[in-house]
Write a structure and sequence with these properties.
Largest sheet: 5 strands, parallel
Strand content: 15-25%
Bound molecules: adenosine-5'-diphosphate
Shape: elongated
Order of helices and strands: EHEHEHEHEHHEHHEEHEEHEE
Number of helices: 10
Length: 375
């Protein structure tokens, strides 16, 4: 630990220096402000004892220069009673403390120890912060690579799965020759599992695109009632398997929307899937579309367990699940739905009372026209 004593009185410097050296400090002396600044410019001092009155510059000026050279140097002002005010001002300007002259050595040593302890802690903090920042950067980089990996794998999975699904459809529909009911049932079960895998892979691909800011919108004009009916018809099997009632309220003249058809399908599929997945056997799922002014309201309701108040926002965050262990899922469906809806300048929320089912509602502007842009 090295200390610079800045005082124009050589005797005072010597006396102080001797005691500090005896305590194991390295000590250097400066008789003027400019000498002090030159010394601090040449090397780092842990601590500077600065006399408030110097022949060339004021103690305050030296304090400023010393701290500008290295803000980690602890500065302690030395002052006569007459210039107490300027010492207090110095503390406002970054001095650690002040001591009055003639100096009481015990008091000086105590202040020096405290100042050096503060410096040690502050340097340690800086070191830790640097380490944390570096670790954080590394994690970010790894996370980016992991997302790219997930995106690549999902992409590679998607095409073969689509081919398998098509092949199964061809056989199930009898286009490759006759099959009996038992064979059809087995292949249909295989097909619904493949469909589940495709949804999972689509979610993974979507979330990595959202994270990378690469979710592209391909907008077109299409009949929203037709799309919703089409999607609903693919769920007939699942409804009957879970002995569920499904109700729909889709006005035939609901009309067209300007949106990304595939993405809106994904939102509907994710919400309908959840409604079926989380509602126990024998429950009910309803779909309702309403046009209000220039907006379309979509409501997907169920008679499942509902969403407790404290989860109503959280479930739209990545990987948030209320029922994590019991029912299969990734915790990605709702955040993706939210992102897609918001990319269309819409909004999504849930209305629910725990135990009384849930109603997921999303609203889309019908004619949202903005250039197809990357996000
Ligand atoms: P996942 O269904 O894969 O877990 P989601 O993001 O779609 O992911 O949903 C997040 C969580 O919200 C679910 O884990 C579930 O706890 C809750 N949730 C979503 N939809 C419903 C629903 N219709 N009824 C009850 N809980 C639901």
């Amino acid at each position: 630990m090295n200390i610079l004593i800045i005082d124009d009185d050589p005797n005072a410097r010597k006396t102080l220096g001797k005691i500090l050296k005896a305590k194991g400090f390295e000590v250097e002396e400066a008789g003027t402000g400019s000498e002090a600044v030159a010394s601090c410019g040449a090397k780092f001092f842990n601590l500077a004892l600065i006399d408030v009155r110097l022949p060339d510059t004021s103690g305050l000026g030296v304090l400023k220069a010393v701290r500008a050279l290295n803000e980690d140097t602890i500065a302690i002002m030395m002052t006569g009673y007459a210039s107490l005010d300027s010492s207090i001002e110095a503390m406002n300007k970054g001095a650690y403390s002040y001591i009055t002259k003639p100096v009481n050595m015990d008091a000086v040593l105590a202040v020096i120890e405290k100042g050096l302890e503060k410096q040690r802690l502050s340097l340690e903090n800086k070191r830790l912060l640097k380490e944390l920042t570096a670790a954080n950067e590394k994690l970010k980089e790894l996370d980016k690579r992991k997302s790219a990996f997930v995106a690549n794998v999902s992409h590679e999975f998607k095409n073969p799965l689509a081919v398998i699904k098509e092949s199964l459809s061809i056989i199930i529909d009898g286009l490759a020759g006759d099959i009996d009911t038992k064979q059809k049932d087995i292949l249909s079960a295989a097909k619904s599992n493949i469909e589940r895998l495709i949804r999972l892979v689509t979610d993974l691909l979507d979330i990595s695109k959202i994270e990378a800011g690469k979710m592209e919108m391909r907008r077109e004009n299409f009949d929203i009632g037709l799309l919703t009916n089409e999607i609903l018809s693919t769920y007939e099997r699942e409804f009957s398997k879970k002995k569920m009632l499904s109700s729909k309220n889709i006005p035939s003249d609901i009309g067209m929307i300007w949106a990304d058809r595939d993405k809106i399908s994904e939102v509907l599929i994710n919400l309908i899937n959840n409604a079926i997945k989380y509602t126990p056997e024998g429950g009910e799922v309803g779909i309702k579309l309403t046009a209000k002014e220039n907006e379309l309201y979509f409501e997907i309701s169920d008679t499942g367990p509902g969403i407790p108040e404290e989860y109503k926002d959280k479930i739209f965050d990545k990987f948030e699940r209320i029922t994590a262990e019991k029912i299969e899922g990734t915790g990605l469906g709702l955040p993706i739905a939210k992102d897609i809806v918001e990319l269309h300048k819409g909004r999504i929320w849930v209305e629910s009372e725990a135990g009384k089912g849930s109603r997921f509602i999303f609203v889309l502007p019908r004619n949202f026209r903005e250039k197809n842009t990357l996000r």
